[in-house]
Amino acid sequence: MLIYILRRLGFAFITCIFISVLTFAIIRLPPGDFVDAYIANLAASGSSISIDQAEAMRRAYGLDQSIFVQYWSWMVRVLQGDFGVSMMWRRPVTEVIGDRLWLTMVVSLAALFLTWIIALPIGIYSAVRQYSIGDYIFTMLGFIGLAIPNFLLALILMYFGFRYLGLNVGGLFSAEYVQAPWSLGRAWDLAKHLPLPAAVLAIAGTAQLIRIMRANLLDELRKPYVVTARAKGLTERRAILKYPVRAALNPFASSVAYLFPYLVSGSIIVSLVLGLPTVGPLLLQALVAQDMFLAGAIVMMLGVMTVVGTLISDLLLMWIDPRIRLEGR
Amino acid sequence: MLQTPMADHAAPAVALAVRDLAVQFRSEQGVVRALDGVSFDLHAGRTLGIVGESGCGKSVTARSILRLIDHPGIITGGRMVLDPSTPREIDLASLDPESRQMREVRGGRIGLIFQEPMTALSVHYTVGNQLIEAVRQHHSVSVAEARNRATELLRDVGIPRPETRIDAYPFELSGGLRQRVGIAMALAGDPDIVIADEPTTALDVTTQAQILSLLRGLQEAKNISLMLITHDMGVIAEMADEVTVMYLGRVVEVAPVRQLFAAPRHPYTRALLRAVPSILARPRQRLSTIGGAVPHPGSRPFGCSFHPRCAERVGAVCMERIPDPVPPGQAGASCFRTEVPA
């Protein structure tokens, strides 16, 4: 078991290194650098800078050195917690990202838990009552949820929430808390704003997870150990919840790994629509402006979060399935 | 019709009387009559062997008794009376499968042993967890007391070091040990009746012999009425007191075991016995087989359902009429050869 965990940790570490290399490479892929983009921007607004000035800027940001040197110096500073200075904002990257990282995680985790809470009972119901009217209704709703783009759903929910329920939609905080330091009031304000974005982000993943849960449970329900459980005299409910549902839970654990990055990246447009202060919109701006230190930091963090998510799902799987836990015993 | 009393000495009480049991599976392709009027008696403390080829309805019979047939199977007729003519008499066919009474019967009065010890236990819980659950389902005892009983059960079924094995997961045990756990599970609620559905089919020969002798020992020690379902005539010869031969959802012959082997009445029984490999056979002698395959119960042959494969057809009557079933509680065969006086 310890070996299993150590091996997972090792793989996670190696993956993180590859992520950093890829991140750096992808950021450098588009032709030109930040200074080119900056000049183009200035040209668009009618002013310009001299070639000397541009060269000075490149030297200041280290853009004149070879790619390998740039990568290495970036990595060394990243490991010290210094992600460099955002060229666009002219402030340290960590400061620019600030709360946004945590807010992104809060929104994503809320969406993930919502996905589970909705998908688990519906998936069980749909499998146990296969081809019932309820199964068909949930199936239909699920496919609709899969088919509707998130941002459209966000717009619709915002409209109805504002028009009929009088909710203050958009953002994660009320106006008076946006700039306020953390306090109980601010946390409560966040909690009040969370349901809408969480629901929007959860819908598509929920539909997917319901289908997976249903299919898995249908397989498990036909296995002899379910008959064993019934033949003991257990109630139908207990026999199903204890045995086949437990076996069908594996995809739920895996869902942490694949839903997490999806929630984070899929949230960019939704975050723009809903005006959420998460890293998604920031990443978009950084990429448009070729602000490589900021973009690099965000892509890197998202990558690492994905790896951590995978690690968590591996540990969950280990908890669910004793065969993994006892590997090599 | 040729009939003989079931046993010469005073017959023991009937523990389970099944009468005219009919089970259908209804699907879009049509109705399949999986069981078509099955009757037999299981006597207290005795072993009833139910034998037949795959698809003859043996397992459906076992599942029906416990009211555990899978959708879309339904019981369309017949009775299954536990302890008939006693105060504990109860007709299982009349109960709601989900009812409390039925759940008390499952495991409490009738235990079930499965064919596949690999898949009949959940890999997600320890042996102890699954066994203690079965104990507590039928006895109101504390967890600690249930654990003691579970350990005792494991010892009873011959599992070495039960104190440590109780915390093992099923996948850590060999097939033979798993089947022993399966037997312990069936016994956890102290049932009077145990139904063993092909309990040795998935095991190797040596383990088979051990499991069979274990079953016989437990039966004597706990005075269990055993219903043993198998396709193996060797197992029948070794274990059964009485035998019910099934073909395509019907009982074709009922006989005490000695009589069945000495003087089988039904052509199907005779064919089954010829198909048993013998150590006395000459080398390279071809094993006798029954021609053809069991027809799908959805396309049951007209008349006697065995007639297309029967080597001893009497004549046109076999193709036109269904022979009378074996009268309940008696030995006999459902065949025109035995109906028509020779």
TrEMBL record, chain A:
Domain of life from the UniProt record: Bacteria
Subcellular location: Cell membrane
CDD domains: TM_PBP2 (cd06261)
A Pfam match: BPD_transp_1_N
Membrane-topology descriptor: Multi-pass membrane protein
Keywords for the protein's UniProt record, in alphabetical order: Cell membrane, Membrane, Transmembrane, Transmembrane helix, Transport
Transmembrane stretches, start-end: 9-27, 101-124, 136-157, 194-213, 256-280, 292-320
ABC transmembrane type-1 domain: residues covered: 101-317
PANTHER family: INNER MEMBRANE ABC TRANSPORTER, OLIGOPEPTIDE ABC TRANSPORTER, PERMEASE PROTEIN
Record-stated family: Belongs to the binding-protein-dependent transport system permease family.
UniProt name for this protein: ABC transporter permease
